[in-house]
Design brief:
There is one protein chain. The protein has about 350 residues and is mostly helical. It has one domain (about 1-150, about 165-360). It is about 80% helix and about 0% strand. It is built from 15 helices and no strands. The protein has helices at about 1-10, 20-30, 35-80, 80-110, 115-130, 135-145, 165-190, 190-205, 210-225, 230-245, 250-285, 290-295, 295-325, 325-340, 345-360. α3 (about 35-80) packs antiparallel against α11 (about 250-285). The longest helix has about 45 residues, at about 35-80. It is globular. The two termini are about 35 Å apart.
Length: about 350
């Protein structure tokens, strides 16, 4: 989604220059959260300050939220039908293929050195031994931070230090944080379940470097394994709906919230998972040069992402056990994986083919 956004704001509208847009991409890649949502927020803030940031973020998220809630309502209404269950069984194998594609892309980018590959494998073993993901992430990041970068320093003149944030900018960030805390306290008084949902989604949004692909295993660990709000088949169905919904992949939060507490839960979960990354963009934009050029931060994040690759691999193994139960499901998954990874076939074509084949073989 980065390229369509670039064409719109750089080439068609002329709101940002190519250099400004690429600097925004670099900035959003070194902070946690859904990268494309943050990039839209960054563009809005460059144009119209904090109000522009909120307008851009809302405009990017709202269509996906509306469509996901509609699809989730249809899912809950018709998901019990026999033919729907048959199609769902086949499409769940496609979800495994989609996650394999995500692991392939993430691993291809990350594991360019034996260090990061070793961190990913170590994280996979740690998750298999039921290690807590926050401890694994922090450990991997610290190990990578302490090791040499393996790359030569970039040539060219040093970037000038960014000026410290103004009192007005600090006041805006403080007001936003106070408002978020007030909303959470109000939720806690109104519904402890909604407050728990909001706190969980905010935590996922705050710790997940790398966007939606790496948020999925964190969310699965929490809502399926720890809290048991969703079953594994429901979570797989939610992933599939997220993939076919235009917009950020982590709109999966709306599906999760809907199953927990209806439309209110969907709204709370969506706001909570996107609010921390948006606040980070708004708060750190005044310190952009330090964030963008901090080599230590980049090394730490690469360590975290290596651990996330290990977690994604463990999630695939966990989801595959109840999904790939016979030769037909294995064949369907492998065919979808080859089409997505090897042939780079459009996702909608793959889903359509898997759905049709499912009706014939299951």
């Amino acid at each position: 989604m980065i390229e369509p956004l670039r064409r719109r704001v750089v080439e068609e509208k002329g709101w940002l220059s190519q250099r400004e847009f690429l600097e925004g991409v670099a900035f959003c890649q070194v902070i946690p959260g859904a990268t494309v949502v943050q990039l839209a927020t960054y563009a809005g803030q460059r144009l119209k300050g904090v109000p522009g940031a909120w307008a851009a973020a809302a405009g990017f998220i709202l269509p996906a939220f509306v469509l996901m809630t509609l699809l989730t309502g249809l899912y809950l209404r018709f998901g019990h039908l026999a033919w729907v269950k048959t199609v769902s069984r086949g499409l769940n194998t496609a979800v495994i293929a989609l996650l394999l594609q995500a692991l392939w892309r993430l691993g291809r980018d990350l594991c360019r050195s034996w260090t990061e590959l070793a961190l990913a494998v170590t994280a996979l073993v740690a998750f298999a031994l039921r290690g807590h993901y926050l401890a694994v992430f922090a450990g991997a990041g610290l190990v990578r931070l302490c090791l040499p970068s393996g790359t030569a320093p970039e040539a060219g003149a040093a970037q000038p230090a960014a000026p410290p944030p103004s009192l007005r900018e600090l006041a805006v960030v403080a007001a936003l944080l106070a408002g978020a805390a007030g909303l959470w306290l109000g939720l806690r008084l109104h519904s402890p379940l909604l407050a728990q949902l909001a706190a969980l989604m905010a935590k996922v949004g705050f710790i997940s470097f790398g966007g939606g692909y790496v948020m999925i295993p964190v969310l699965q660990r929490e809502v399926v394994e720890h809290l048991h709000w969703l079953t594994l088949p429901q979570f797989l169905d939610g992933i599939l709906l997220s993939y076919v919904t235009p917009g950020p992949l982590i709109i999966l939060a709306a599906f999760t919230g809907y199953l927990v507490k209806g439309l209110t839960g969907a709204a709370v979960a969506t706001v909570a998972i996107f609010l921390p990354p948006i606040l980070i963009v708004v708060g750190l934009s005044p310190l952009f040069q330090q964030v963008k050029s901090g080599r230590g931060m980049r090394r730490f994040i690469r360590g975290v992402l290596a651990a996330l690759a290990g977690m994604l691999a463990w999630t695939i193994l966990t989801l595959a056990r109840p999904t790939l139960t016979d030769v037909k499901s294995w064949a369907l998954m492998l065919g979808a994986a080859v089409a997505l990874i090897g042939g780079e076939v459009n996702l909608l074509w793959v889903i359509g083919a898997v759905a049709g084949i499912s009706l014939l073989i299951f």
